[in-house]
Request: fold
Amino acid sequence: MASRLPPADATLRSGPVAWLGDRLVPQEEACLPVWDLGLTQGIAVAEQLRTVRHELWGLEGHLDRLERGLAAAGIVPPCKRKTLVERIQLVARLNAELLRTEDDLSVFVSVSSGSSLAHSPRSWDNRWVNAPSLDATQAGSGHAAIASPRTVIWATPIAFWRWNVALDEGLHLVTVQVPELPEAAAPRELKSRSRMHYWLAERAANEIAPDALPLLKGTDGFIADTSIGSMALVNLAPRLVLVPLKHQALLGVTLRLMVPLFERMGFAVEAHELTESDLAAADEILWLSTPVFGLPVSRFNNQPAGAGWQGAFWSRFTSLLASDLGLDPWRQARQFAHPEAG
Reply:
């Protein structure tokens, strides 16, 4: 069946492009109205993907989570999944044409719930006070959406520079006092644009050590997530990889997709309630996130952690994943980790 997407205009192909609502636009024009609920209230569900050799990686897993997040937020998907896939693939393909062959993209998808009745210019129109489509519940909330959900899809070269130190020395994790949101407040699978607590956690971590990434705990005191990735603790005897329980952490797409690889390495994967003591006792600690797939944790709360950068598990893991991908993502990341590399 022929694609329903419009052909990319030649004027768009001279620079980065994005998908906004129902059309392809130059990336600099991919702007939401200031009264969109994604901006005024952070009511938007998002995913970050990446390409591998200019092809999208883990797309289905990210879309599965996006759909679960939209359902949890009560946001109706603005288009069918097949159409969304076509749009994501188009944005990735057109932007990849601007890259060097050995570079790759981060691809972002954000779906907001639409325009806010309370903040829209239409609120000036008295006809909206008694509009038939506005029921009493919506009027009372002040956050009723008066437009369909909006989708924005854009791409940038992967920001490898964020990890230029960790690529050579491993990550430094520190626990912070900012807690992860409780499951009752926001389902773990709801990856929303309202990420203020992660912002505060990162600020708290940087006050402890400028290069540190925060490790958040739940209100129950157990380990949850870092601000931008998942945790996996490696025990060599017995051969076991421990991850947080589903209701305590996001359990990111990359972690889920790595489980079969862990099992191929001969390690069972189990979910447990994890504490700081478990991290301190682990033979190796892995941080997993889509942009760079993963990094070893070499320091935890200003102390050496596990085998650090030279762990046997990490070495085997990176070798197998690079073989599966047909690309060494860490060599790629080092190549582009410094601005002058681009």
Notes: The CA atoms of residues 116 and 269 lie 44 Å apart.
